[in-house]
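CORE FACILITY INTAKE
Project code: CF-77B
Contact: R.S. (postdoc)
Sample description: multi-component assembly, two entities in total
Requested service: structural model of the whole complex
Turnaround: standard
Below are the sequence entries exactly as provided by the requester. Do not edit them.
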Amino acid sequence: MKALRDFFEKTKPYVQKGAKYHWLHSTHDAFFTLAFVPKNTSKSGSHIHDHIDLKRTMSFVIIALLPALLFGMYNTGYQHFKAIGELASTGFFTVFFYGLLKVLPVVIVSYVVGLGVEFAFAQMRGHEVNEGFLVSGMLIPLVMPINTPLWMVAVATVFAVIFGKEVFGGTGMNIWNPALLARAFLFFAYPAQMSGDKVWVTLKDSDKVVDGFTGATPMADAAAGNIDFNVFDAFIGLIPGSIGETSTLAILLGAVFLIITGIGSWKIMVSTVAGGMLMGIILNLFAGVQGLSPAVAAYFSMPFWHHLVLGGFAFGAVFMATDPVSAAQTDTGKWIYGFLIGVTAILFRVVNPAYPEGMMLAILLMNTFAPLIDHYVVEANIKRRLKRVKVSA
Amino acid sequence: MSEKEALFSKKNLKLLSDPLNDSNPITVQVLGICSALAVTAQLKPAVVMSISVMAVLGFANVIISLLRNTIPNRIRIIVQLVIIAALVILVDQVLKAFVYDVSKQLSVFVGLIITNCIIMGRLEAFALGNRPWQSFLDGVGNAAGYGVILVIVGFFRELLGSGSVWGYQVIPNSWYVVNGGFYENNGMMILPPMALITVGIIIWVQRSRNRKLIEN
């Protein structure tokens, strides 16, 4: 560590204003502050500094994402060997390393491309490099189907960073969650690569699949009316799906970590789950309505809590909805925001079969409304307090 | 009014060239966006649309300019609409007669030229106060400025969204995933939101290159 710090301190003069490598100053600054907490103190007035800065916050989220990432790697291998019928004869580490080799390129592409764009913009504008992409870069691969071609990941990342963030002024200014924007972009631009039965399990043309293998996610099956997934498997995460979103268990571990460290808002998580459950119950009540096709009726009558372990609901609630930039900021606002995400996600998911995964669209929609929600919460607060003033006067 | 001015004096040429960049109707005045989104999924309809708008705007400007001293102020909008509508019907008939396929593709959007804000805007802002020749140049210039953007947007949307230019396949068929390749058309380029983003990129590029447009 000492050597690293010395290296940064020694190179610092070269990137000072007027020095030869000044154009690299924000890159230098980015790596320096990523590795070490800066010693800078405020120069004027009195300030209160939190002991963790934005970079440290972001690294905590990365730690929270690790269980989901590691499980995603294992599950990628698991689904592959299960599909070709060799699961029983393959060791744990073979399965894991198979997945590791498939997932790692996606992660690397996402980081290299995304950080490349970030650094380029920071250099061009003379800003510090924003640390927001540390998390986005990890979230993007986790919400991709494993078979997404790498160049599509790259295109989506470029789109998300430029149009999700940089045009609004960088980290902290974005309206939507950049990682979700990347996924939404791919979902609308290349639908064939983002949904269907072919994208969730890695198979070569030469691989022989076992009888009964379809490759469809339980959620796609549910939308078609065959609800026969094992809830326990879905909770553990041994089902086909996007890389990091299958395991509700791994996501819960991350959620606990985020809540204990105070980085993720538990209000948003709880209210999202509550909203989802409420909508599930409402749909259950309507399952008996005349005129529904059998497939739709079956989906309507699925026990409401099954929704929580399917698809990206848990992942969205824990990692996407709680994004501090695009979520509502006020306490009351967070309850409303999360609740509406839960409600609309399940509504999209069940009622509109064209969008099997409603969570992405629900969060993007509520991201859009978050400032409005905050505005009315603040207005209501002002009104309430004004009334109190008038009464006492 | 009395001094004789050359047909293509510097001032008149500026009427023609200004809308191409400094006061482009789409990227600077942000007018006529709806049709820019609707007809630019492919290059061909975008070009036909630009030419149609050019014909309508050029002649409407001249006619209004000729009538400008006789139109009662209170009913000028109605008069303008009648003239635009008549010209649009003419254009529509010509398109149906000579390029039926494109006319079908453009469908209602030819008719909607009537409501294109650029046309009303130029009539109100320019033709009502200027002589016919200048008005004509102004009309053609603005329509050209509109057309340039349409063609750029149409080119990129068709290239990235359908893999073709002017209807000819430019991306080799063997590249596509269905044929064992790696490439896939970007379906979002076909959708209107991407047209808006493409226009946004053009505005971005233009503003970073043109010093006059940089605000504060």
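Facility notes:
- Residues 67-215 of chain A form one domain.
- The mean pLDDT of chain A is 84.
Invoice: internal transfer
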